[in-house]
Every structure is written in C-alpha cells, then in structure tokens.
Amino acid sequence: MKAAVLVFPGSNCDRDMAVALRKVGADVTMVWHKDAEIGDVDLVAVPGGFSFGDYLRCGAIAANSPVSQALKRHVERGGYALGVCNGFQVLTETGLLPGALMRNAALKFVCKSTPLTVATSDSGFTGGYTAGATITLPVAHHDGNYTAEDAVLDQLRDQDRIAFTYADNFNGSRNAIAGVLSENRRVLGMMPHPERAVDAATGNTDGLALFRGLVQQLADA
Ligand SMILES: NC(=O)CC[C@H](N)C(=O)O
Description:
The chain is an alpha/beta fold. The chain contains five helices and eleven strands, in the order βαββαβαββββαβββα. 23% of the residues lie in helices and 26% in strands. The strands form two sheets. A nine-stranded mixed sheet has the order 2-1-3-4-11-10-9-6-7, sandwiched between helices. The chain has a two-stranded antiparallel sheet with strand order 5-8. The chain is globular, with a radius of gyration of 15 Å. The relative contact order is 0.17. It binds glutamine (GLN).
C-alpha cells in the first residue's frame, strides 16, 4: 500500500500515523500542505493535531490549503482517505464528508481512552473488525461533537455509513457518532485515534485491525 500523510502547521499526529502505516507495511510519504500534488497513492491520511492553531474553526483553514485540492482530486478518482480527529474535521470542512464537529457538550478538552462500538464492518477500514464489537481507542479533542441535519443522519444510517459509535457518548455527538464513511465507503473520518493504538508497548492494539484491514482490502482489490 502506498500512503501519503498530509502535514499542516500544527499537525501533531502525523508521525504517529506514519508509524502505524509503516507497521502494516505501507510505503509512506509525508506531504507538506503547500504541495499542490500528492502523487499516486492508495491512501491519503489526514492526521490529528491543531492545524493552523484551530483558528476560525478546527480544520477550516487546512481545508483551504493547496494540498486539500489534491486530496479532493484523489477522492474523486476513487482513492482512499482516512481523517483522524483534526483530520476528520478537515474532511468535513472540505465537504468530503457530511456533518460538522462542534465543541464538546461539556465545553472541555477530553483526553482519555474510550469504548466504541464498531457499527459496520462493511468498508476497507472496518473490515478487520466484527460489526457490533466493542473496541477501545484514545480520544483527545475539544471539538468532537458530531452534528448533521436529520436527513443526513437518516441517510448515514440507511446507507450503513456510520463506522463507529461511542459506547459512552461523552462529547454529545448526535446518535453517538464517532466516525462516518463517504457514500463510496472509501473515505473515513473518525475522532478517536487508531494510530495511537497499534503497539502493545503503549498498552492498546485495538487500532491495528483498521490499518491491517485496509492493506488486506487493497491486496484483494
Ligand atoms: N487531536 C486532535 O486532532 C484534536 C483536534 C482539534 N484540535 C480539537 O481539539 O478538537
């Protein structure tokens, strides 16, 4: 699998993402946000962090970086994209995923490990999990409160595009949504951090199945 990890001023999970991808054998290139081309890759990962200091709205300025136009072209070509935390915020701000991430219900930054339900295993990202399984992943955000209009929520449910839900909906997300898929199921945005859960040395490997599943999916394609 060839992967690119985008890097914005203020990204802080870009290297963790690269480590996780390399762990499952990916050939990883880091791409600075001013680059207008990403190159021919299978996956573009948009990492977590505080791009542009979270000014304006989380992810809003990054969504207007030159590299985000290249990201859109990659997705239009049918490429895979994974946005984690700030990356999920960037994907909603670019319009590549529906909805928005608002301030957490308690208006506090939350940093902890939290249980999630795998809502669908029908995607390249979630195929390595069993639907309905509970996994635990770290979260670290202040704007993770997912919202969308009722019609969008209905569509996400009817099209089986909710990837993960919070078992304990600590941030107030509508329908406890922690991650959503695009219509072609090749773009995933999620607030929890699978890339921080890929090594037993750090106490959790529940994120590994996501990266392994993607490699498997690409190998089978
Ligand atoms: N870890 C992250 O990517 C955090 C995203 C964003 N800065 C927030 O706090 O909501």
